[in-house]
Amino acid sequence: MLPSPEGSNRLRLHNRLRVLELLVERGRASRAEIAERISISKVTVTLIVNELIEEGVLLEAGKTEGIVGRPAGLVELHPATGGVAGLDIQPQTVGVLQGNLRGEILYEEVLPVDNTLTDVVVQQLEVLLDSDYPLKQVVIALPAPIGNDGLPKAPNSLPQLEVQQLMAWSVQHDTPIALENDVKLAAIAEHRSGTARQTDNFALLAERPSGIGLGLFLGGQLYRGERGFSGEIALLRWPQGNMLTPLEELPLPQREMALAQLISGLAVALDLSLLVVQQNSTGALTLDLTTALLELVPPNVRVVQSALGEHAPRLGAFLEATRLAQTQLLQSVAVSAPLALPNRR
Question: Which of 47, 221, 258, 322 is most buried, judging by how many CB atoms fall within 10 Å of its CB?
Answer without folding.
Answer: 322
